[in-house]
Every structure is written in C-alpha cells, then in structure tokens.
Amino acid sequence: MEELPEPWGKVGIEQRFTATLFLFAWALLPVGFMVLMTLFDRFASYRLPLGAGALVMLCLAFWSGLVQRRSSLLEHRTQLAFGTLGSATLSLLLLYTLDLGDWWWVLYGFVFGSVFTMYVSLAHLASCDAPTLRLPWTPSSPLPLDKFEHWNVERGQWVNGKMGLKRLASGTLLTLYGEILEARTYLCIDALSPAESQPKYDEYGVDFVHLASLADLVQDEE
Asked: Are 39 and 158 a contacting pair, CB within 8 Å?
C-alpha cells in the first residue's frame, strides 16, 4: 500500500526540544566541575553535593524530552539512559545513607555515563518526526481487533489515550491511541521513527482499508 485510503490523514509532529537542549546544557555545567574535581582532586567535601546537583538537572532535562513522545520509555536507547540515571540515583542514596564518601567515584562514573546515554536517547527522540496517521472514529464503535496483526491492543474500545503497542523488527515502536481535537474524536497511530525511515504502511500490520470503512464520515464532514 503506497497511499492511505480516505478518510485517513497524516499529521505532522510538533516537537519542542529547545527547552530540553537548554536544560541539558545547564546540566553539563556541574558535570564539567565534576570532571575538574576528578582530575585535580580538590574540594573533596563538595563531591557528593555537586554530583547530586548534576544528577537532578540531568533527570529534569531527560524528563522534559521523554514527555514529548508517546511510548518513549519503551525505546531501547531511552531505556539505557533511564537505567544509567537510575543507577546513579541509587548509588547516590547508598553513598549518603551508608556514609561511603570515599566511593564518590562510583556516582561520578554513572553520571558521566548518563551524559552519553542521554545524548544518544534525546538525539534519537528529537529526530523522530514521522507523521502521525489519524482517522476520525466514533467512540462507541468497538475496535476490530482482528484487523491489527501482532499488536498488543490493551483496549478494544476507544479511549482518549494509549490503546495499544507494536514493535517492528526494525525496532520502531508503533503506538495506537485515541485523541480529541476540536470536539472530534480520532484514532491515531504514531511511529517513533524519523520521517526518512518511516515504516511502509504494509509493515504496520493494520487493515487501513477496513478501518476506513468503519470511520465516522459524518463527524469528519461536520
């Protein structure tokens, strides 16, 4: 299938990663001081507080990027970054709780690793600009589950939010969700992928023609 049948439509992705980039840049400032303290072994009493401040700022920058895309936490790059940040947080808590200040380098190692994994994850999320596929849908109409091949459909009825997921062999995540826009209800499929590498419609495992025949055309015309 090269083109979507009517009334399916494609909607561009609106991403606001400027704030994320700003927060990430500010988070690199305390990380830079951490590098200096590691190299010159000065101001030992400030090692953990500085590491804690850098970690908080990195987490804030990471969160600001995650919330912009659906199912972003299920993406492998994001999971790796989440794991390094979680490990850094756990190590910080243990160092403070058990008074293990001499093991500060463990925290610093996780923080330095988080910078790299966060950069890779956020750069990928920012590049994922494949348009969302959208179809007008009547909320009372049940979803034909047999028309979604190899999908993990969580809800068989339309809801304003996530309804199902599918991971393609390429690793691309597809998210099925409901959306309300200008008092109209839509069934949407989002691909977490750059536009140039967006999966072909045949790879979605969705019977677009059958779903189009069930669409609420009257609501779409209104």
From this structure: no
